[in-house]
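This part of the workshop introduces the protein records we will be handling. A record pairs a protein's sequence with a compact description of its fold. Comparing a sequence with its tokens is the quickest way to learn the format. The record below serves as our worked example for the rest of this section:
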Amino acid sequence: MTTLIGLSGSLRRGSFNTSLLRTAATLLPPDATLDIRTLHGIPLYDADFEAGTGIPESVSSLKEAIVAADGLLLATPEYNNGIPGVFKNAIDWLSRPGSDIRRVFGDKPVGLIGASPGGFGTILSQAAWLPVLRVLGARHWSGSRMLVSRAGQVFDESGALRDAKLQEQLQVYLQGFVSHVREVSSVRESRARSQPGSSRTP
């Protein structure tokens, strides 16, 4: 079973990006699951708070979920041609302490999708994520793109994606991303088996 964490970068109840993840969960290849998470409960990053109180439970639980998953799917809105502050803030928390970065993000397959009311989807927001993922050591999958524009016209009132062409595009994207995640997992398993002490002769 291939496990993915889907993280929506919007707090809005009727978020297009959360709806996009919900649609994605229904279009996954066989033997793959998507656990959808939001940013609710994650406070603004404050180094004094971290030093005095430690990592908030909301952050710790999300970190461990990402660590346990095979891949991470980010559904990003686009605000002012860039990454929404609330989303970047969550990643900043997830990268604390710095010694945890590799454990959480190192070589983690990451996919980027996004929906926006504008005419260009989230192309600039997705591009802005690339240097962030690079510094975290994540493995961004660039085999395909999923950019939903004019989101108010393609989702219905319940949040369902009603555009058949976009559903097909999302399904193709997910097939490629899950294949990539499985390839990375296979390589990791092969490396682990080849390490000294990974197998013992009785």
The chain has one domain: 2-194. The first strand starts at residue 2 and ends at 8.
